[in-house]
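Good morning,

Attaching, inline, the backbone tokens for the sequence recovery test we're adding to the shared suite. The designed sequence is right after.
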């Protein structure tokens, strides 16, 4: 995960310019300054999308019997939310294998909340 982030950050000239604006004389950037660089946040999100910490998810137990697409899932069944697959599904992501932090911005440049992006799963 760290490798893809560092490689992507190094080759992103726009991000480098934005980081140079908030860092004085190469000083370490603090959390408040990081929040002022939305592109950095988008790069981190995109890295977590492509390389989730737990690709196969964390097992969960179904609280109540449910039916999904005609299949019965009994109460207590262990399920694995496959983040790796969800984060690469063309139904939710255009060109899902490409590193594109811009996918996390709306047309006004604000970070958007894509419901298909769940790097830490659903609570």
């Amino acid at each position: 995960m760290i490798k893809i982030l560092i490689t992507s950050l190094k080759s992103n000239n726009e991000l480098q310019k934005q980081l140079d604006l908030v860092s004085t004389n190469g000083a370490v950037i603090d959390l408040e300054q990081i929040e002022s660089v939305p592109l950095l946040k988008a790069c981190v999100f995109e890295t977590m999308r492509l390389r989730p910490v737990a690709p196969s998810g964390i097992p969960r137990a179904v609280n109540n019997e449910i039916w999904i697409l005609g299949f019965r899932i009994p109460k207590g069944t262990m399920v694995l939310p496959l983040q790796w697959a969800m984060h690469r599904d063309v139904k939710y992501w255009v060109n899902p294998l490409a590193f594109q932090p811009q996918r996390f911005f709306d047309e006004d440049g604000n970070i958007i909340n894509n419901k298909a992006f769940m790097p830490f799963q659903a609570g």
